[in-house]
Amino acid sequence: MIQMTNVSKVYGDQGTVKALLNLNFKVEQGERVAVMGPSGSGKSTLLNLICGLDEPTSGSIKLEGVELASLNDDRRTRLRREKIGMIFQTFNLLPTLTALENVALPLRLQGLRRHVTEERATSMLDRVGLKIRAHHRPDELSGGERQRVAIARALIFRPPILLGDEPTGNLDSATGEEILRLLDDLHREYNNTVLLVTHNDLAAAFCDRILTLRDGQFIKEMRTGRTGISPAGEKSGEK
């Protein structure tokens, strides 16, 4: 589903800033992988490369077998709209649009008619428990509610790949755990491929595999042996 082969990314005229160095990893369809590491380790660069917002200095990146380097800007934009859902730490909702309009936006960009997009967006807001807040703007919502809207928007077109950039980073611990339970439920329902970058141990435990990134290289890999977060707050699979 996601495959990086010998990927490096350097910045500066002389390649003085080495953001990523010869990364090799693969995320299988339906797998959930967390990438952890200190600030400056290359996590954001990694996400930008995977979603085609940036290009590697060297190496190969494939999504569903498609080599990103073979796509022009328009085709990469289309790939993001059709294949990749993004959840951000800062929510990235448009402040002048209602929750319903924010969620419907990806479908509108695909050219679907308004009544179709609003019907699907209403259903998705209901799925994340926010149908009652459909006509509120982001500044009228709590942080947890805004993140639920962002999740609904990311999943509205049923993308096979979901990328998360610190999806619980701006939330208190209780609200963050609620969001992780929601993501767990939605993953069971849609079986999408999930890649999260996070500093949060609980968010990482939501995933099947944890990779530690430091100085642009993976230094550790751990399989959690878990399938999500249990209702009691313990990691499922533990007794």
Q: In a few lines, what is going on in this structure?
A:
By secondary structure, the chain is of the alpha/beta class.
Descriptors:
disordered C terminus, Rossmann fold, single chain, 7 helices, four-stranded antiparallel beta sheet, 239 residues, 33% helix
Question: What can you see in these coordinates?
Answer:
The protein has about 240 residues and is α/β, with parallel strands linked by helices. The protein has a single domain, classed as Rossmann fold (3-Layer(aba) Sandwich). The chain has seven helices and ten strands. The protein has helices at about 45-50, 75-85, 100-110, 115-125, 145-155, 175-190, 200-205, and strands at about 1-10, 15-25, 30-35, 60-65, 65, 85-90, 160-165, 195, 210-215, 215-225. The strands form two sheets. The protein has a six-stranded mixed β-sheet. It has a four-stranded antiparallel β-sheet with strand order 2-1-4-5, covered by helices on one side. Helix 5 packs parallel to helix 6 (about 175-190). The relative contact order is 0.18.
